[in-house]
User: Fold these one by one.
Assistant:
Number 1:
Amino acid sequence: MTMKIYDLAIIGGGSAGMMAAISAAKNGIKKIAIIEKNKSLGNKLLLTGGGRCNITNLKDTKELIQKTSSSLYSKNFLKHSFYTFSPTDLIDIFNEKGLDFKEENNNKIYPITDDSNSVLSVLLKYLKEYNVKIFNNINVTNIIKENNMFQVFDSNFDSNFDSNFELIAKNLIISTGGKTFPKTGSNGDGYYFASLFNHKVSKVLSGLISLNSNEKSIENLSGLTLNDIKVSYYYNSLKCSKIEHHTYGNLIFTHNGLSGPAILDISNKIAESIILNNMSNMSNMNNVNDVNNEIAIYLDFCPDLTYDLLDAKFKDDFSCNGKNKIKNYLKFYLPNRFIEIFLDLSNVDLDKTLSNIKKSERKNIINNLKGFKIKINGFNDKNQGMISCGGVKVNEINPKTMESKLVKNLYFVGEVLECFAPTGGYNLQIAFSTGFLAGKSIVS
Ligand SMILES: Cc1cc2nc3c(=O)[nH]c(=O)nc-3n(C[C@H](O)[C@H](O)[C@H](O)COP(=O)(O)OP(=O)(O)OC[C@H]3O[C@@H](n4cnc5c(N)ncnc54)[C@H](O)[C@@H]3O)c2cc1C
């Protein structure tokens, strides 16, 4: 078998891997190969944003850094990659090939076509133009480094058979993604590759995932959406510290719990605290109550009003509109379908008129409006998480290049790293920025 030596081999042809190849090629690297286990590149990219691809977010870089930071890793880790390749740099690359973008709520950026295929096709155009060699249907299972060269093998490698895959490269980028949505090809192989080179990998949990709840009270609410609420989660409900995390947005009740952007974002914080507190027996989140730890979230239906303001307003309204029934009054604050359950849990009769509401009942109502508690039993099917929280430890990666601090010429980019972010285009920007930075850092 004649063996071609590549300047750069990239394992994993997702967003990070493709961008790494493009960036290296722009920087003059000639012999580049992408090795991908699927029959085509970018399978996960095609699913993003419900097929519309929320490619990035136009918040300024400082806010980008803040949004993508976590107490699990240094908040400065991604800084250099974002400054090297910002959201506008990303957009420019696509604009150059004629693809335009539009901005939606919260600075989210989508292609004007509303179709992730158009994003992928620009990346493929670049790869073709730069003569990047693409090996599809190759499931890499082993990598060794000998004589300053990386050797990459597929599953059936056996030196007695010429037909099996082996590739040699001076530089290697691992961009195999995380381990959620494994049907897209990203099933955690990169963590094993990292371990081959003695890299540490943190516990990995699914993030941006729906939550399960067995609460009887919400059983019949499936399909109901709560708009613009604040969702909080306290570490101290895990009996640890008192740090509060919260997100704003919409929540949707599902047949077995909760979903919607606010829930997906808070799920990252729950995963983060499980990893941070090393709760090994909770890693599956199958039944958190088994381990005597309670995870609960709190819904604030009036995030713009403090408890005291709300109390003053209620007192006022109750005295002016004494004949109104509480169930009708609450329509200003809650959707119809939710009111009965809400009043039941607040121990207030539905048909009570405002003038008959006792002080203790008013307090119950306001307490629940500001912090309606829902106990959580676990994450939804972990394969359905949109991202992986945790991964290759970034303290062993040089943030200025994405090169391993342990092995020369070895790089890690994208979701295989322990970094993760909320919804809004941040996760793809992490993949593109880290990929671009690594590609730019390669010297042949
Ligand atoms: C349903 C869904 C919707 C999403 N929507 C958005 C969104 O709108 N905006 C956003 O910012 N983020 C979104 N994300 C997250 C985003 O898709 C990921 O963060 C991003 O794709 C990570 O890119 P990556 O290149 O690091 O990994 P991936 O895209 O996962 O690519 C890794 C590649 O490596 C290949 N690979 C793995 N192991 C091997 C191996 N052993 N040999 C060969 N190849 C291998 C895989 O087949 C895969 O093609 C979404 C995710 C999901 C699942």
Note: The domain at 5-204+388-441 is CATH 3.50.50.60 (FAD/NAD(P)-binding domain).
Number 2:
Amino acid sequence: MNPVIVAALKGTEQIASILQELTGKQVEEGWSPFNPLCPVCGRINRARLTGFDATRETIDFACECGESGTLPMAGGGKLTWRIDWPARWEVFGVTVEPFGKDHASRGGSYDTGTRIVREVFGGEPPFPVPYEWISLKGRGDMSSSKGNVLSITRMLEVVPPEVLRYLIVRTRPLRSIPFDPGLPLLSLVDEYDDLESTSRDERALALSRAGGGGSLGVPFRHLVNVVQIAGGDVEETARILERNGYGNLDRALLSRRLEHAKRWLEEFAPAEMRFCVQETLPPSAASLDKEQKAFLAELAARLAAGMDAETVHKTIYTAAATVPQRKPAQLFEAIYIALLGQPRGPRAGWFLTFLGLDFSARRFREAAGISEPEPASGR
Ligand SMILES: [Zn+2]
């Protein structure tokens, strides 16, 4: 950065007149494009630049705290925003630059940067791609000055970086980018990961992979359920997925997705998405009535090895039809209570298939009171 810092310092007057011309604001007396970082009070906005040495690449400063001296340009402070931006275009050879729409306004930092890079640094400005605000569901536009932010660090704990790139790239320029870390996040990652999804934007997908990051091939909403079935264990998750037709998965990618899935469950998942498969018959199963028990016994008898989720789904309804005294909803509750100790859970046909039909049938028999207690960890 030192050569552009020197160029900016030499061009101080020229930059000041560009800023005045385009922003209409008077630049104050003694203004400098470089803010020294005072080594004593540690503040960057209290020290003034009093001189510089282009050969030794140092700056002189005097601070309101009383300190003064000489500092290296590198690390001794920084260019102010409107100069720092074009300086980086020049240093990195930037050809295309996406940025928030606030910088695109008339007299905004893109306008001043364009003149500064041409007239002071002798370069060309990058092609501009202004984008709209990223809005946080239920909280309005993200704004660091209003404190309405989800930091990129926290966001990346729940969204893989390539999926976040996909979110930005698939949105047309100047359209607002809605980000909802709750259930819609599942659909977003699904769109990226599910090879069969029809809503994928293939071009955005290719562009978002510029920095690496493939598709796992397993819908993320499956993953958040399977990782819970597996009690959070990566190997067990891989085994369950393989048993259900998701073989040859990229193991490193799977581990990364599972970290995101677990974090999402902890931080953003609605309560009804969380569950824990009980190792033994939950105490609440004692509250099941005679009809619910009859249904579970009937279902256990009808479940057969090799059934797929769709078949299990139909089988549940066939079994439910043998207990007309109870509404299907009450019978579904019996399934979840026997397995999870709570009245709700993932879609039942899918859930029993992934959990294992053997394990499920044994548990239903026990809940119905027609078999001995199963040994713990019998899956
Ligand atoms: Zn100071």
Note: Residues 133-274 form a domain with the Arc Repressor Mutant, subunit A fold (CATH 1.10.10.770).
Number 3:
Amino acid sequence: MLMQPPRDEIRKVWDERAQAHKEDSRASMPDRFLIDLEIRKLCRRIPHGDAILDIGCANGYTDLKIASRRKVTITGFDNSAAMISEALKALAIAPLSQEVKGRIVFETGDLLSPEIVKKYQPQKFDKAVTKRVLINIPTWEGQQQAIENIYHILPQGKVYIMMESTLQGYEKISRMRERFGIERTKVRWHNKYLDEDRLVPFLKGMFDIEQAVNFSSTYYAGSRVIQPLLLKPFGKEPSYDFILNRLFARLPSLGDCGIQKMFVLRKKRM
Ligand SMILES: C[S@@+](CC[C@H](N)C(=O)[O-])C[C@H]1O[C@@H](n2cnc3c(N)ncnc32)[C@H](O)[C@@H]1O
């Protein structure tokens, strides 16, 4: 039987990334064009006036961007105290008005802790968001528990935006790479991509799935397949900062070969 990496080890990864990258987007992931693409897609689903719970907010990079574009209240929590420390520092120096800053809260919290529902349920959020967070929970049982906790935190009829990496997206982009003679990318040991075949039936018990969007498909095809093919004749290695990645991130998303997907989920009225 495969040993699952302990959650403490995973938390250490995020503590270290917070210390290494401070308020930079690379604390969350090295691909800055992809994180900005995620934020643009997320903002489209967030109207002014929303109260948002950002679960696994890391150093708050995404939340500060949302707050600069939308008049919303945001509570972000993360189980890495080092990430929350960086988020608070980033909030203090962010070029936002005091009024906007006053609508943002960052605090330490674990989505899997037994108290989390009691803590956040009374705040009646309009939206809960996870962005590459469930994939840091090393078992499907833990991922299900996390989704159930989010379900209980949200009032009926409110929305959970799940932006997570899926096994199916990973398989599709990997097969495309292989067809062009490029090796699969390695999945990092602390990531467990969601299996849509069991995720979707599980979600349907609690939420209406309003949208399931592969918003990152063109970006992955461009940055993970076209880029290495273009650079190969020059003997160059692909880079997250490749100049054309900026363009790939701006093109409409076609196909279904992006690893990151967005599920817009409305809590069922029982
Ligand atoms: C890949 S980062 C994504 C951060 C942020 N959502 C973003 O999009 O930039 C994953 C974050 O989830 C946090 N995390 C993982 N498991 C968590 C849990 N059980 N409760 C709260 N945060 C968690 C990690 O500490 C880390 O900061």
Note: Residues 14, 28-29, 35, 56-58, 61-62, 78-80, 83, 110-112, 131-133, 136-137 surround S-adenosylmethionine (CB under 6 Å).
